[in-house]
Amino acid sequence: xxxxxxxxxxxxxxxxxxxxxxxxxxxxxxxxxxxxxxxxxxxxxxxxxxxxxxxxxxxxxxxxxxxxxxxxxxxxxxxxxxxxxxxxxxxxxxxxxxxxxxxxxxxxxxxxxxxxxxxxxxxxxxxxxxxxxxxxxxxxxxxxxxxxxxxxxxxxxxxxxxxxxxxxxxxxxxxxxx
Length: 178
Ligand code: GDP
Known about the structure:
The protein is α/β, with parallel strands linked by helices. The protein has helices spanning 2-6, 24-33, 96-100, 102-112, 136-145, 162-177; strands at residues 10-17, 46-55, 58-67, 84-92, 118-124, 150-154.
């Protein structure tokens, strides 16, 4: 509402990247509207979602950007990343190629953003644990090797860790900036 926009202390832009189909749009809609869609609907252009989070007694407006990922690199025009304080690189724990491509997404991100951007690696779809092909410890080790600050596994379907993931990123940004 208008009131909500009037009353925040800081606004941070956070971008979501990763292969198409990994669940970016649903993570965003869970976070900003508490909605989930079973049918796949390719994101066209850019979508936004806002939600305020209280960190250390300050109201932070998280402005999350979501775009259609495709398989070409560089995949996303650089203005998408402009002003971003944080990024979620999302893969699907059941699809190895989406994890393999994290490296390309990370390179693209680091090519066009400042070094101090807060990055979280997100393994989504933990509700499909029986189909898992990426082990938690391997993803964690990869994140550590690549200097990715944060790692979390989520499910947009059953809401596991969704708030947690965005809150962690926003909290880390606040601690770096303010
Ligand atoms: P995007 O292309 O990365 O934005 O992916 P979407 O959010 O559009 O999701 C792609 C497909 O995966 C859709 O069919 C979603 O319903 C499904 N999906 C997204 N998140 C999850 C999840 O956490 N668990 C399961 N089982 N399916 C999911």
